[in-house]
Structures are given as structure tokens and as C-alpha cells.
Amino acid sequence: MDMTKTHEIKAKKRDRLGSRYARRVREQGGLPAILYGHGEKPEPLTLDSKEALGHILAGEKVFRVQIDGGAGEQTVLLKDIQFDYLGTNIVHVDFARVDLNEMVEVQLPIHLRGDAKGLETAGATLLHPTSSVSVRCRVTDIMDHVDVDITDLDVGEALHASDLKLPAGVDLESDPDEVIALIQVMAEEEAEGEAVAVEGEGAEPEVISERKEESEEGEKE
Amino acid sequence: MPRMPKRVKFRKEFRRVRDRKATKGNFVAYGDFGLQSMERTWLTARQIEAGRIAAQHFLRREGKLYIRVFPDKPVSKKPLETRMGKGKADVEYWAARVKPGTMLYEISGVPEDIAQRAMVRVAMKMPVKCRFVGRRVSA
Questions:
Q1: Do B21 and A207 touch (CB under 8 A)?
Q2: Which tens digit of pLDDT belongs to each residue from A106-116?
Q3: Distance from A43 to chain B by nearest Cα, in Å?
Q4: What is the CA radius of gyration of chain A?
Q5: B33-78+89-134 has which fold?
Q6: Of A31, A43, A182, B44, which has the highest C-beta tally within 10 A?
């Protein structure tokens, strides 16, 4: 990551806390946030919603926060994002204080590149059970995403986290056996499903409590 | 085949108060795109199955469909022209509790336009207003 591209975000201290006041902040075009870390006291902040969301939605992770009336500029790492119940709007963000040379753990999105040769087989589907990996690196080395070339991936083959080519200074924290991409020929499920439906009509699940009663009665006899 | 639990602790259940909004199971977790409920309902096992069939007929063995809801709630119903009383009626169907925001289905392994067309067909089978969504930004 090029640190010259790190954006500055202006913030104000937030004195009144709680959901009611946070909602008022949002109504006035602000975004509630919290800044913590480095053994210092957590600081509730209000960001300018339009400015902050522009950067966050673009996938940026490291910012320079200028707190109004506070002590200078602080480098922060985006740690968490809270959404509303529909997952449409960001309602709160967490920032952690960091030094530029500090080792941090971050989640990086995975971008699959190329057309896998296995996809030419009829019914073959590319599955990627995980869309991000956890890595440990210096703040200055944080990448926007991890590119994975899947051109040589054939049917039945899988790419694991350990196969990722990460630059020097970036260590994998996720499970090395975690599957990143895999090509599978999907089984025909629907025909089986419909056939069983006739047999399954009117079936009832096993009742655990009833079975206990029966066994107790049996013991008494 | 409509799904139902294999084992349950009790045969019948109270109706319970319908909760407010989804605080879990409300984002695309397994696939690339999803169908999200905008309203609350008890989604019956038959409706879930109808949605699955609609999607799989359209996808024709392409992509993977994930069903994010499971009908674990037994719903009982008294027969017609029956007087009140005489105990709780037999279980009529199984339903999944769906709140506004609940992710119903997810699809992976197909382009966005195909996924959207499949989800439109699934949404036709749903008793609630739904919307097509993608993965959300993460920290």
C-alpha cells in the first residue's frame, strides 16, 4: 500500500453516547465511530458520513484521523464495520490506533483471475467457499486485495490458502488448508428431490421427549 | 421434498411473538449473491422447496444454490368445522421464521445477470417482498 495515498478524515469528539444520540448524529450527516488501541482510553468520534463512507466503500483500510481540538494526527486502521439490519447502510465503524511499522492482522479480499480450464467441462462450477484471507503484515505493506490465478485449475482440483503467492513481509494467518477455489461438477439434485417427495409426504420427525417417557415406563414395568 | 427436522424435542410449539428485525443470517455469507427478505413471515417448507426447484430448473446444474433458512417450527391447525377446545390440533406444516433482512437463498459460481434472473424466479415463489443483494464490504 502506498502510504502517500492514505486519506485524511476529519473527526469530532462525541460526548453524548448511546443509541439515541448516535441516531441523531446520523440524521445530521455524521457517522459514529470509536478509536481505541495502544493502551489509551477509547475515544468516541463523529466522522463526516459522506467523506468517510467514500473511502471505506472504496476498500481503504488505513486513514489519518484529524480530531477536532485533539492532539495532532493519528494513523488508524479500520477494524470493524457495523451495518443496519438490511446490510445497506453503515451505522458505525471501529478504528484502531496503529504505528506505520507495526505488525497488524487484516482480512484481504481475494480476487480470482483468469478462466479456469476445468470450467470447459459441462456442469462444472467454480466454488470459492471463502472470499478473504487473514494475513499479518506491517501497516505500510497492507494490500488492497490478493490476486489468485486460477487458469490451470481443473475439475476436482482445489486451491488452498497455502497456495497463495503473498509478497515478502506478508504472512498468512488463515488456516493453510482453507479452500480458496475449487471446481466441482454439480450433481443432479432436483430429480432425486422430487422422487423422495412422494415417499416423504406425511412423515414426522422423531420426538426426543416422547422416547424418554416410553423408556421410563418400560423401566417401571 | 419439503424439509423438516429429523428429531425434535417436542411435537408441537407455541406460536410465539414475531420478532423485529434480523440481526443474524442477514448478509451473504456463502455465495456471491443472495435473496433477502424485506418483510417478516413464516416461510413454509413447501415454499422453500418451490423456491429451490425454481432456481435449480433455471440454473440447470450451473452454480451452487445455498438455502439459508430451515423450517424448524411446527405449525398446527384445527380441521374445518371443528369446535374450539379439545386440545391443540395436529401439526399441519413446518415453517421457518423469517424476519426483515433474513437471507433466504444464496448463489455462487454464476455471473451476476444469471444469478439475478434465477433469484427473480425464486422471489415469485416467496410470500414476501424480496431483494437481490451482493456481498457487502468488510473491514
A1: no
A2: 999 899 898 88
A3: 19
A4: 26
A5: Aldehyde Oxidoreductase; domain 3 (3.90.1170)
A6: A31
A185 to chain B, closest Cα gap in Å: 8
For residue B62, the tally of other CB atoms under 10 A from its CB is 18
Cβ pair B25, B102 in contact under 8 A: yes
- Nearest chain A residue to B46 by CA: give it: A197
Selected residue with higher pLDDT from A81 and A202: A81
Cα torsion B127, B129, B134, B135: sign: negative
Mean pLDDT computed over B88-111: 94
Judged by CB atoms closer than 8 Å, whether chains meet at A203 and B26 is answered as no
Q: Which CATH number applies to A106-189?
A: 2.170.120.20
Spell out the residues 6+ positions from residue A214 whose beta carbon is closer than 8 angstroms to its own.
Answer: none
Chain B residue closest in CA terms to A195: B1
CB-based contact, B17 to chain A, within 8 Å: no
- The pLDDT mean for chain B works out to 93
Provide, as residue numbers in chain A, all residues whose Cβ is less than 8 Å from the Cβ of B52. 193
- Quick one: CATH architecture of A3-98? Beta Barrel (2.40)
DSSP strand pairing (A179-185 vs A146-149): unpaired
> Distance between CA atoms of B2 and A194, rounded to whole angstroms?
9
Say if the Cβ atoms of B10 and A203 lie within 8 Å: no
Structural domain boundaries of chain A?
A: 3-98, 106-189
Q: Which three cell numbers stand for residue A168?
A: 515478502
Most confident of A57-61, A139-143, B128-132: B128-132
* Angle between helix B45-59 and A189-200 (nearest 10): 150
The neighbour count for residue A182, using CB atoms within 10 Å, is 20
Chain A contact for B111, CB < 8 A?
no
pLDDT of residue A178: 92
